Amino acid sequence: MFIMVITSGSEPEKTLPLSVGRKFMPIPLYGFLQGDTVGLLILAEEAETIQALARKLQDAASLRVRSKDRIQVVYNDKTMDPAMTVAQAGLQALDRFDVISG
Amino acid sequence: MLGREEWLPLARKLDWDYSYVREDEVFPEVISGRPWLPHSEWKDWEESFKTSYREYVDNQYEKDMAVQAVHDAVGRIENVQKLALPWLNSLKVHAAALPLAEFTGVIGNLRGARFGRDSAWRTMATFGALDEYRHTQIPLLLFHRLLRLDSQFDWAHKFYHTNNWFAVAARHFFDEVTVGQNAIEFHVATNVVLETGFTNLQFVGLASLARESSDHMFERMVTSIQTDEARHAQIGHPVLATVMKHDPKYAQYLVDKWFWRNWRLFSILTGLSIDYLTAPDQRPYSFKEFMEEWIIDQFLRTLDEFGLEKPWYWDLLLDELEIYHHMIYASAYSYRATLWFNFVIPGPAERKWLRQKYPKYWDDMDAVWEQISERWRTVGPGPANELAVHGTAMPTFCDLCQLPLSAGTPRKNTARVLVHDGRKYIFCSEPCHWIFLHEPERYASHKDVVKRVLSGEAPAQLPSLLTDYFNLTPDTWGKDVHHGDYEWLRTRKDSAA
C-alpha cells in the first residue's frame, strides 16, 4: 500500500489530486468518525450518496477505528438520509460532517 | 569608585525626561504595548532579584563550565547510545522545538530592552536576551554532536526553517508570543505565563525524567537553563501588576489567552515525553499528575497573587488533562512519517498503567491502539511495512493553534466551523475559537497546512508533501522504533485489561 494525502478512501487508485481537468471538482470536507482521534480531510463528489461518503471516512480512518455496519451521518446537528446525495444534503466545501454509531 | 550598592541603583534606574520628542514617540503603543501610560506609572518598576552585568557574566561563566564538565563526563556518543530508544526520540522532539524557540526569545527580550517602559525593566530584558542566546547555543551545540549518531538530530537547527506541520504550529505560536509582539504582551505572555507557568517547572520535571532515564547531559542542560528562567521570568510580574492596576480586563484576557496557547504546545511536548517516550519503570509520575502538582497549583497561586480569576475554560482544561495528549499521540503515531522522530506503541503493561492513570477516557483510546496493533499483526513487522500501518487521508488542523483537530474525545471531537468575512475557518476547541474572535485581524490571513494543500501552495501527494514541503527524507521521517516487532504483538492479543 502506498499512501496519498488527498484520497477518497484507503485505496491509492481512488486518489483525487486537486488538479484541473476533472469533470467534477471534489468538495473538501472535514470528516469526524466517532472513535477516531483526529478529523480527516475527505473529498466528496456532489453526486455520491451520504452512505458512500460515510464509507469513505470509515476507510480513511480504518487504521485507528474498526468499521461498523450501523452508522449515521450527522451534518448541522441533523441525521442525513443515507440515500441522499452530497449535493442534496447541502454539504459545502470545508463543512464538518460526523459519522457516528447508528 | 562607587561600591556595588551605590552603583547598581544608578545603573538600573537611568530614565530622563525628553525635550525634543514626546514620550509616546519614543515608546509608541504599537510596539511598547497597551495600556499606554506615562513613565510616572512605571517608575516604581522593580525586579525582585537584582544583578549587575559583572555578576551576571560571572554566574553564567560558572554555569557554562558546569554544563561543559558534565558533557565531558557523560555526554559522549557512547553515553547517548546507551539511552532507551523511546527516550532518545523524546530528545529529538526537544532538540527541534527548543533551541530556535529560545532564539525568538532573544528577539522578544530585545524588544523589551528597547521599548520596556522603565530602565530597570530594560536592563533586565537585556540580561534576558543574553540568557536566551545561551539557551539557543547550548542545545544547538550539544545536539549537533549527536548528528553522528542519528541524522534525525539535524532537526535541532532545521525544524523552524521547514514547513513541517508541527513547525508551522510552533512557529505560529512563537512568532506571535515573541517575534512579532509588543513589549507588554511579550513579557506577560512569556515571563508570567510561559516561563513562570510552564517552562520553569517543565524544566524541573524534564530534569527529573532525564535523571530517571540516566540522561545526565540533558538533565544538566535543562537545569542550567531553568536557573536563568527563574531569574528573568520575574520581569513579567511587575509588568502584569501595572497592567492589572490600569486595565484588569485586558490583563485577564492576556493571561487566559496565553495560558491556553501555552497549554496546547506544552501538552504535546511534555505529555508525549512523560507518558509515551519515557520507559514505564522510569516515569516518576504521569503527565496529568505532573500538571496537577506542578503547573495547575502554581498557576492558581499566580492568579491569586494578581487578583485574577481562573480562565473561563478551566473545567474544559481539566478535562483535557485526561485525554488531549493521548489523542495527539495516537494521531501522530498513525502519521509518523510526517514527523522527524520515531514512535513506540504502548504495549499491554503500558496500557494498563495508562488506564490506571487516565481511567476517564482510556477505554476509547485502548480501542484505537488495539486497532493499530491489529494492522501490524495483519501485515507483519518490518521496515517495509511501515507505510502499510500509516494514515491514508490527510489529517486536519486548527486555524488558531495549527495543531491537529484532536480535541475533545474519540466519542465527540470538539472541532467547530466559523464563517468570518466570507471565509471558512475550523478550530479544534472553544478556547481557540474564542481567541480568534478576539483578534481576527491577527489570525485571519494565516493558512493552515490543509488550506495550503487545497490552494496548491503545498503538494497534494504525500511523498512530495513529505520531501518537498516538510523537508523530510525516507531516512529521517518518523517510523515505529521497532517497526512493529514487539514481543507482545507476536505472542498474544494485546489486552490491557
| Proportion of residues in helical segments of chain B | 55-70%
Poorly predicted parts of chain A: 1-22
Q: Please count the helical segments of chain A.
A: 2
- How large a portion of the residues of chain A is in β-strands, by DSSP E? 15-25%
What is the largest interface, and how many residues per chain?
A: A-B, 38 and 45 residues
CATH topology of the largest domain in chain B: Ribonucleotide Reductase, subunit A
Largest sheet of chain B: 2 strands, antiparallel
List the domain count of chain B as a whole number. Answer: 2
The amount of helix of chain A comes to 10-25%
On the 0 to 100 scale, the average pLDDT of chain A is 84
Structural notes for this entry:
The complex is a heterodimer of chains A (102) and B (497). With 102 residues, chain A is an alpha+beta fold. Chain A has one domain: Roll (Ubiquitin-like (UB roll)), CATH 3.10.20. Chain A has two helices and five strands; from the N terminus they run E-E-H-E-E-H-E. Chain A has a five-stranded mixed sheet, with helices on one face. In chain A, a hairpin with a 6-residue loop joins strand 1 and strand 2. Chain A is globular, with a radius of gyration of 13 Å. The relative contact order of chain A is 0.23. Mean pLDDT of chain A is 84; it is low at 1-22. Chain B has 497 residues and is an all-alpha fold. Chain B has helices at 4-12, 23-26, 29-32, 53-74, 77-81, 85-97, 99-115, 119-145, 155-158, 165-179, 183-212, 216-232, 236-246, 248-275, 287-306, 314-320, 324-334, 348-357, 362-379, 430-438, 440-443, 449-454, 462-469, 487-491, and strands at 394-395, 416-420, 423-427. Chain B contains 24 helices and three strands. Chain B has a two-stranded antiparallel sheet. Chain B folds into two domains: 51-318, Ribonucleotide Reductase, subunit A (Orthogonal Bundle); 322-397 and 448-497, no CATH class. In chain B, strand 2 (416-420) and strand 3 form a beta hairpin. Chain B is 61% helix and 2% strand. Chains A and B meet through strand 1 and strand 2 of A and helix 17, helix 19, strand 1 and helix 22 of B.
